[in-house]
Amino acid sequence: MGTGDEVVEIESLERSLLPESVNGEEETEADDESVLYSASFGEMEENFIKFQTAQWVLYSLLLVLVWGLGLFMLLYIPVRRYILRKDIRSRKLYLTPNSIVYKVTRPVPFPCFGVLKKEKHVLLPSVADIVIEQGYLQSLFGVYSLRIENAGVRRPPSDDVQILGISNPSAFRKAVLTRLSNMRTEVFTRQVSAIEDTPNLRIQSPAAWLSPSKSLKHDAIPHSGDFALLQKLEEVGSSVKRVQTLIEEQRSQTSETAD
């Protein structure tokens, strides 16, 4: 009987704690992911599916002669379109104060086996540029590709985040670059304010770290050197005066002999 009561108490505690923990996680996620700009994919759904279908058909026609593999690809087109539609409808791309978040949930090649979830977070300091691309076949259907390049050491293009089918890529690129500019301005202002707030530090010579007696001796050395230098200058000046007097005496003697 005691064990049954304990189990009931544990279950009641779990039920009371779980909703609070779930709500707490949702609140923390909402706080951490305050959205500054959200991209849209709905307007490009039909064009995206048409482009992907056309590309799939071209590949199928090229592979028709290879053991009939292209024929199976053509029969797979309805399933392919279903997967693409689910894919683009589940996409979420938005900008937060610190990162770019991309989420997608797509069915596996055989949808009866479940779905694949993908979530990518790209920190804004690691973003070098947002590249908008459009190939020849993409231009026929008005589809754009967005590529997020990484900063620092150049990585292969496969490491960059590439997203196809975004409705207004230029607006998203502008939002990201504006946020990056604001972040750099904030960092610069913080550095300037930190420099202004720090007091003026006096740079002391190593002699000031010595004992008082040693510092006095160190201060006495320059004075003795200056005194010796003054004595040498006086000696040079007196010798110059002697030379001048000798030159004047010789001139006077030569003038007397000439007379």
From TrEMBL:
Signal peptide (residue range): none
InterPro entries in UniProt: DUF7642
Name the record gives this protein: DUF7642 domain-containing protein
Keyword Transferase set for record: no
Superkingdom as given in the UniProt entry: Eukaryota
Transmembrane annotation, as ranges: 56-79
Keywords: Membrane, Transmembrane, Transmembrane helix
Domain DUF7642: 86-184
